[in-house]
Amino acid sequence: xxxxxxxxxxxxxxxxxxxxxxxxxxxxxxxxxxxxxxxxxxxxxxxxxxxxxxxxxxxxxxxxxxxxxxxxxxxxxxxxxxxxxxxxxxxxxxxxxxxxxxxxxxxxxxxxxxxxxxxxxxxxxxxxxxxxxxxxxxxxxxxxxxxxxxxxxxxxxxxxxxxxxxxxxxxxxxxxxxxxxxxxxxxxxxxxxxxxxxxxxxxxxxxxxxxxxxxxxxxxxxxxxxxxxxxxxxxxxxxxxxxxxxxxxxxxxxxxxxxxxxxxxxxxxxxxxxxxxxxxxxxxxxxxxxxxxxxxxxxxxxxxxxxxxxxxxxxxxxxxxxxxxxxxxxxxxxxxxxxxxxxxxxxxxxxxxxxxxxxxxxxxxxxxxxxxxxxxxxxxxxxxxxxxxxxxxxxxxxxxxxxxxxxxxxxxxxxxxxxxxxxxxxxxxxxxxxxxxxxxxxxxxxxxxxxxxxxxxxxxxxxxxxxxxxxxxxxxxxxxxxxxxxxxxxxxxxxxxxxxxxxxxxxxxxxxxxxxxxxxxxxxxxxxxxxxxxxxxxxxxxxxxxxxxxxxxxxxxxxxxxxxxxxxxxxxxxxxxxxxxxxxxxxxxxxxxxxxxxxxxxxxxxxxxxxxxxxxxxxxxxxxxxxxxxxxxxxxxxxxxxxxxxxxxxxxxxxxxxxxxxxxxxxxxxxxxxxxxxxxxxxxxxxxxxxxxxxxxxxxxxxxxxxxxxxxxxxxxxxxxxxxxxxxxxxxxxxxxxxxxxxxx
Length: 745
Hints:
Four Helix Bundle (Hemerythrin (Met), subunit A), 23 strands, Heat Shock Protein 90, alpha/beta, 5 domains, 22 helices, 745 residues
């Protein structure tokens, strides 16, 4: 790479930083928040200097005018009205497009970037320094005046996203640390070799003594014994030293490998900005092409998301944004008559809720045309002529391939492809998409997806003998309640009075108090008296409750994995974390907890485990039956173990079929039933079942297969091999599991 390429690469990163900072400042100004105009001015000045250093006269000319405009706004000589704000955004977009186009050849800066800024600066524009340094910006009659569309991405680059250099450097440093830790194994190997040599010498000495040496009381015998004692002492010292060095090296390796794993996980997560960062500019370009204006607000692009998921979502999200303009845009006159600002407003937000990634696009446009959707659905046969459909069902039709209510085909809409592409991509990612109207006008389109991997700050709490995790953002603060003066009883339920800040004013709220153990497991046998423990003010979606726990453990940033595949209450459990290497902890949904705290009737559906056991007599009355749970997923087998143990069974676990077969053959304990997954390493569930039925002592041992493979041929195969029951995880119900186990035992 020559020096100019290096400079351009550095400028590409620097210019984006300046543009982002300027846009953030403008967004704050639009929301009447405090703005550091000195910083914005310095950003434009730095952009001008950087563009001059890499010999980009078009960018330098635009940056010079921006610098002048910001100086006048800062000094109060120019107000930041709608025209000025639109001109600045246009100029920033043109700079961003120009720099992006450098990768594909010689880009052209459209003259409108200078023209709109000059209009904002008139009549003092003639006081500017030379407008066209190096002759690079003089507009001519042959220059293009239209908007240059963003070039199509190179297929060879479509699977690549930007990764922060700091993340790569951190992973490299962690790798070097692991290499250094592993290098200590060489010294341990040398120590083992020395220990082996000493042991060999000792063996030779012992053999010499056995071969017929002098009498036991001779001087030679005493000397040999002394030498033997010295050799044994040396071996013991070497062994102790070697053990100490091994423990130290093992600890260093564990620490280094954990750091490598952490940095690798972090590298797999990139900010959403890497995929969606240029969409606001694209939206403004689309609106300008159609002769309109759009104000775009973007939130949450700093959220770390799995790189592969972002790449899969890039095009669908762009389709959603294009749809918002294509179907939501109105003329300025129509918007004025409806009492709206002239410019269409679009909010694009990315957020994590529990273990879900939620992407929302909300606009204040004309909103969904339900009569047109209904008419089009009847034309296509999606809806019977006399059939009545509610708005939610009608809005689901827009995701059908080829479905469109547009009157014609243009660059933004009319072909009925965009939202069908969105629905297809979301289905592949095991998510959902929903379109709805907004009050008083506009539309919202929300995509809800499983967040495959995300590091989230979590509050670890303990209650009812178990550890749980809560998103730390939902824990507003720790409350100290005076149980005599601050707690009352309403309808038999405890409520607490607390002071909160609302809209800059202090007010007193009366909120329900709920014990975490009661919400998660209503039949808990723990002492749930409300006079002890810590109280957390929990807040989510504008609602609050007081959550009581036995203890607060820690606040940690941890990798949140999807919730258990079976038995997880989706309203309450949103993910899983693993503490250490073997302890799974459920991540709870604050919204679900608040819902159950406010509505005690919902608590009966939270678990229902022990109530079901008591009602149906599943719990054994005499010797507790022993069930062997076999599953390679630590989360799944832990969940199955907790369900069965809550029902009164004794449970042992194995990690795969071979482990289970070895344990059964060893007769460590009597096993009354086997609950096994199908897909496991070494020996799968089918192989385990076949092996058990081939041995006389296990031929009649009840076996339940549980798997995500619910195809009819898989079920038939399991039953043919001798399974007593076959349950699928997709349709798993813990009552069905307990009932099946109870019938077989």
